[in-house]
Design goal:
It is a single chain. The protein is of the alpha/beta class. It folds into 2 domains: 1-123 and 295-307, 3-Layer(aba) Sandwich (Isopropylmalate Dehydrogenase); 126-290, Isopropylmalate Dehydrogenase (3-Layer(aba) Sandwich). It has helices at residues 18-31, 43-50, 54-57, 75-80, 86-96, 108-119, 155-173, 194-205, 234-259, 263-283, 309-324, 327-340; strands at residues 6-10, 36-41, 60-64, 101-104, 129-134, 142-145, 179-183, 212-217, 229-231, 291-294, 299-302. The protein has an 11-stranded mixed β-sheet, with helices on both faces. The longest helix has 26 residues, at 234-259. The radius of gyration is 21 Å and the shape is globular.
């Protein structure tokens, strides 16, 4: 393996096709010139896409696979194809050390199961969590986890998620002590389930951790920018995430409809266009693309299936940052601190 870090790209794992995945990787390499790439998928299609990106071609190796995990494939089918599919081969490259991270826009459940089976969880982590960045009213996004990997969680799982989320926030945003809160139905200490209250007490007691634990947060405050990390079980997190995404689409569709309803409203749109463009940019999922499976022995990033070139590049850059800053080591250090406490 080259001395330079390498990112494995599942070139077949996106709704928009090989050309977009390759173009996204090429865009990311302009900002991370020290990285090499392993492009996994149909060799003919990848070579054709690389013609437009000589900068990426010079830093890439192709690993051929014509077997694709589709959105309709069951997890069991994906696991059976793990050694031959583009998704499975990208993850196995991380397992073997041939790559430092893997990025895929494929089936989320299949990616999670394949990654967990191949890489296993880190020592001290019982379950991996799916984490993503959500927009806020402040200058930085909020890290939220778990978003669907674990439907039921014990207090110790939530504590581990908090440690992983804080480490992720420190890397992505450079915070020394990220503000961490548990998602709950109220902010009072007596609110919520036994698991939530127990996890909160553990986090209050663990003063040596690199985080500022601030108790509970309600769902309507997630995007206010009042905290840097929001922790919850995967069932609650997935519902909250889909609600936020649906509301964002509802607002943008409502504005579009309002601005096209009459001649006067169309004129109003032209006057307010700078503001609406800022809103569109802020809510564009491509600017926040790249969900991370935290807690595995290796970096795996999930790109949204419908991501455009900019979105794919963002997901690849997330993987690059996590490799550069060695997120596994950061999580391990904080796990040792809480075990000592």
């Amino acid at each position: 393996m080259s001395m330079k870090p390498r990112i494995a790209i599942d070139a077949m794992g996106g709704d928009e096709g090989v050309a977009v995945m390759v173009a996204g990787a090429a865009l990311a390499r302009h900002r991370h010139a020290n990285f090499q790439f392993l492009l996994v998928g149909d060799e003919t299609q990848i070579k054709s896409a690389l013609v437009k990106h000589p900068n990426l071609r010079a830093a890439s190796e192709i690993l051929h696979s014509d077997i694709v995990i589709t959105a309709d494939d069951k997890v069991s089918a994906a696991l059976r194809k793990a050694k031959t599919s583009s998704m499975g081969m990208a993850i196995n490259a991380v397992k073997s050390g041939h790559a430092s991270a893997a990025v895929s826009g494929g089936n989320t459940g299949a990616l999670m199961a394949t990654a967990k089976l191949a890489l296993r969880t880190m020592p001290g982590i019982d379950r991996p969590a799916l984490s993503a960045l959500l927009p806020t009213l402040e200058d930085t996004d909020v890290v939220m986890l778990d978003l669907g990997a674990n439907t039921e969680c014990e207090a110790k799982n939530l504590v581990q998620f908090a440690i992983m989320g804080a480490a992720y926030s420190r890397i992505i945003f450079g915070f020394d002590r990220p503000r961490v809160r548990l998602l709950n139905i109220g902010t009072e200490e007596m609110k919520g389930t036994d698991q939530l209250r127990d996890a909160a007490q553990h986090l209050r007691d663990a003063t040596a951790l690199h985080m500022d634990f601030q108790g509970f947060v309600e769902a309507d405050k997630i995007n206010r920018g009042e905290c840097d990390v929001v922790v919850c079980d995967g069932f609650t997190g997935n519902i909250a995430l889909k609600s936020i995404e649906g509301t964002a689409r509802f607002v943008t569709d409502l504005l579009r409809r309002a601005f096209t309803s009459s001649i006067r409203s169309k004129f109003g749109f032209l006057v307010s266009r700078p503001a609406t463009e800022l809103l569109r940019h802020h809510l564009d999922p491509n600017n926040h693309n790249g969900a991370v499976f935290l807690g595995l022995n290796g970096v795996v990033v999930k790109s949204h299936g419908s991501a455009n070139i900019k979105g794919v590049a963002h997901a690849v850059e997330v993987a690059a940052r996590l490799v550069e800053e060695d997120i596994t080591a950061r999580i391990t250090q904080d796990l040792a601190r809480i075990q000592a406490a």
